[in-house]
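Hey, quick one: can you model this chain's 3D structure?
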Amino acid sequence: MGETYQGAGVDIAAGEEAVQRIKDKVRSTFRPEVIGDIGGFGGLFAFANHRYRHPVLVSSTDGVGTKALIAQASGRFDTIGVDLVAMCVDDLVCQGAEPLFFLDYIAVGKLDPDHIEQLVEGVAEGCRQAGCALIGGEMAEHPGAMEPGEFDLVGFAVGVAERDQLITGEHVRPGDVLIGLPSPGIRSNGYSLARRVLLEVAQKPLAGPAYEGAHHTLAEELLTPSVIYAPAVLALHKAVEVRAVVHVTGGGLAGNLTRVLPKGVDATVDPRSWEEPRIFGEIRRLGEIEVDEMRKVFNLGIGMVVVVPANEAFRALDTLRSGGHRAVEIGTIHKGSGQVHFS
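Sure thing. Here's the predicted structure for all 343 residues.
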């Protein structure tokens, strides 16, 4: 008997089983615009152009980085799909776009239907939270390139906004207010440094307490799913004038705020205005990391920032809090040269 694909490490039957397991999870995300079912060569989405005068499609793609290694090491795959969706749709909403649909790509060393089911359930949950449809994806088994148990997760999202309602940052003015939306965990950025400090330098076990006095494990802390801010920011965009939105990912607050500051203004952030999650203090202490380095790598507890006129700040806070976010005023805009300062 000759060589087979399964003998080379690719199990087609396992892939077919995984597809059957995830069908209902995928269908649970469908919006009325979705045409057909999963299994086609392309996902079909009937764009409702009658809802818009001058629609602009906005797209974003991202992954979950080395947070995937924490999921792999702990054997927990059910939440990291939420992170994937968050990384993509919360980029879209920075332009004022409503997320419409999402596609994922899962690469594994050896296809395990149980793991795929958990991963896709996380993606589906993220899509349900964001209000977008999961209309397609791909599972790829890569024997030789990846070891059994290893995986990578990548996503792609498309949203839509009215052209004259795009959020660009060009109208940010001195006197505007920065409002921060809290992030309870590390989100999905800085995990290479977090893993280095916590697991290698401090040699903390994932199954042990996250920190002294914690009632949850380090794995649970590091796998805290990312908050999805898109629905709350879209609701805010309808309620007040939103002049800029910042998704705080790699580069921290300063690195991302500078992306929306027009010429002639600076931003000043007061880090005492919000409660920093304790895990960041542990990473800083155990790794003897300088404050400036922490600010470059991590969001330090603020996952999204919106810039609004001062006279809209109270209404903005009320709207965001009504959407379930403990929003807080964290700084102001003033004359300058496009810099971010910490008071």
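One thing worth noting: The longest helix spans residues 113-130.
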